Structure formats: C-alpha cells, structure tokens
Amino acid sequence: GLDTLTLDTAGQTVTIGDNISGIETVTGTGSNTLIASDIDNTWSINAKDQGVINFGSSNEVNFVNFDKLTGGSEVDDFTLALMDNITGLISGGAGLDTLKLTTASQSVVIGTDISAIETVTGTGSNEFTASNIANTWSITATNQGVINDGTVDEVNFVNFNNLTGGTGNDDFVIGA
C-alpha cells in the first residue's frame, strides 16, 4: 500500500533514508525541514513547499509542507519553476549541488533563498542577488560567472541577465 509519514509539530526534521524507509509521502506542517540521504539526490519542487525527491537508483518520496530542504553529503540537484514555491531555505549540504530555475522573471537571493549551492542556472531572464556582505562577482561570459563572498562560499551562475549586489561592498570584475 501507500504509506505516509505525517509530522504534527512545527520545527521537526526528517532525514530521508536514515529514519524513514518504505514511505511514499512525508507531510509536514509547513514549518519543517527535510534532509536528504548522503547519496546523489534529485529534487523536483512542483508546488508551494512540496515536490518529489529521488534518491538512490529507484527510491522516490513525495514531500508536502516542508519549507526547508537540505541536501546530503553527495550531489543534490534542485529544480523548480518558482522561487516562491519554497517559503524557507534550500541548502545543498555537502557535495557539488545545483539549483535550476525553469521559469523566467525569478529572483534568487544567496543566504535567504539558497545556501551551499555551487551552481545556479537560470533561464536567461532571471535575477541573482548577493548576500549582504562584501562579494566579488567575476563575469566570465554573457550572463554567467562566479560570485565569491571571501569565505569558502563560491557560487557559479549561468543564464542570469540581472545581477544585484547585497548591502555590503560588491566588486564586479568583467572578463575575469
């Protein structure tokens, strides 16, 4: 049959594969965190705070009402049409993680919308906004480059036609 795990309290965390197995759907309260297994994971966010996570060779879990998504220690690929579909934070965790937007006119803000994501891909008509600290933007080609905040966080961006600095000092280096 189809099995569902339902969280009834805000602030709870569920790790896929560690503390649940054999579950087809995990339902939160709208204020919960879903953490992926420490294997390659593919996340498809298809509605407000919900979607599907595929992990391993043939494992799939639907999630509903999770505002925070956290990847595992391997590769996590997140795909979504609307940034508003996640009301909290998408964190890639360890590994080389990606976020792909499939709809134009979306804005991604480092530290508010995403963290620990190494590559963000837009449609060519999206806005990418830095965190509110000093950042160096290296524009390497049309609508793409790398942003570095001076720590270990470095994010590659592809197909973003609008780049916005945060409240800190931002340096834009063209042709880097």
Outline the fold blueprint.
Blueprint: E1 4-6, E2 13-15, E3 25-27, E4 33-35, E5 41-47, E6 50-55, E7 59-64, E8 68-70, E9 76-80, E10 90-91, E11 98-101, E12 107-109, E13 114-115, E14 119-121, E15 127-129, E16 135-141, E17 144-148, E18 154-158, E19 162-164, E20 170-174
Parallel strand pairs: 1-3, 2-4, 3-7, 4-8, 5-9, 8-10, 9-11, 10-13, 11-14, 12-15, 14-18, 15-19, 16-20
Antiparallel strand pairs: 5-6, 6-7, 16-17, 17-18
Q: In brief, what are we looking at here?
A:
This protein is 0% helix and 46% strand. By secondary structure, it is an all-beta fold. The chain has a domain at 97-176.
List keywords for this structure.
176 residues, mainly beta, 12-stranded mixed beta sheet, 5-stranded parallel beta sheet, 20 strands, elongated
Counting DSSP H or I runs of 4 or more residues, the number of helices is: 0
Question: Measured on Cα atoms, how large is the radius of gyration?
Answer: 17 Å
**Quick one: biggest sheet?**
12 strands, mixed
Helical content band: under 10%
- Outline: elongated
Largest beta sheet: strand ordering: 1-3-7-6-5-9-11-14-18-17-16-20
What is the H/E order? EEEEEEEEEEEEEEEEEEEE
Low-confidence stretches: none
Topology, number of strands: 20
How much of the sequence is in beta strands? over 45%
Structural class: mainly beta
Q: State mean pLDDT (0 to 100 scale).
A: 93
* Distance between the ends: 55 Å
